[in-house]
Specification:
The chain is α/β, with parallel strands linked by helices. The protein has seven helices and eleven strands.
């Protein structure tokens, strides 16, 4: 049984509208929190002081990370940015514009499955697909709208289409507007993911695929390609970047 007196590490991933926070004991996730409309006060209310947390890493695409770090002044902190040392080679042409969740995902994937060419597919607010070579060289990938963004776009930019959410479907041809939106969005996104995987396998037949992100559950069983589902890949990648920096 894990002792709370053992050294723990804190990982904070601040997204556009929510934050995911995890506490690690060695390589094991002890607990994960998802916070809607995050703030330092909400983070403090989680009762993290019951763990012996000695170090933390924070990744942010929106909020000011320094205010969150200030809420835990006793920790040794890493703030992930374009200059943070990494256990991979980052060949992205504009590293300062690279999403930190994408970066953490490829780090996590490469260290979890060393010696393999990998596609990291993150099905969240956006659908991102990133390639990292077996040698640990990351060059980039693709970004397109995620599931909820597609539903919202159809409703926002048309006059009469309703706003829908994911529903499990077993049809390809929609027989009414409701069904047509569902199959267009869900089967369209499925076809996009499978199609991109197929394109990569033309030049890289042995590429392995890791699926992560908030919509992992919706797609892990309906893709035709074999994938490994790991919903907490970004949190794990951030923790591995933290470890790498403290070992240097």
């Amino acid at each position: 049984m894990t002792s709370y007196q053992e050294p723990h590490k804190l990982v904070i991933d601040l997204g556009n509208s929510r934050a995911k926070t995890a506490v690690f004991n060695k390589n094991e996730i002890v607990t994960v929190f998802t916070i809607e409309d995050p703030s330092p006060d909400r983070l403090l209310s989680l009762g993290l002081d019951r763990f012996n947390i000695t170090a933390g890493i924070i990744s942010s695409v929106s909020d000011d990370p320094e205010s969150y770090m200030a809420a835990f002044p006793e920790l040794s902190w890493i703030m992930l940015n374009a200059g943070t040392p990494l256990p991979i080679r980052n060949n992205y042409q504009t590293p300062e514009t690279l999403g930190k969740d994408r970066l953490a995902g490829v780090v996590g994937g490469h260290l979890m499955k060393p010696g393999q060419d990998l596609l990291i597919i993150d099905a969240g607010t956006a659908l991102t697909i990133d390639f990292i070579s077996r040698e640990g060289v990351y060059s980039g990938g693709s970004i397109s709208p995620g599931l909820s963004m597609r539903f919202n776009a159809l409703h926002t930019f048309t006059t009469r289409l309703p706003l829908l959410k994911y529903e499990e479907i077993d049809f390809l041809t929609g027989r009414n507007t409701h069904q047509s939106i569902l199959t267009g969005v869900i089967n369209g996104m499925r076809a996009e993911i499978d199609g991109i995987i197929d394109l990569y396998r033309i030049s890289c037949p042995d590429v392995s695929v890791i699926l992560t992100g908030g919509d992992t559950y919706y797609f892990e069983k309906i893709l035709k390609n074999n994938i490994f589902a790991f919903p907490n890949l970004v949190l794990t990648g951030l923790k591995l970047i933290l470890d790498y920096n403290f070992e240097k």
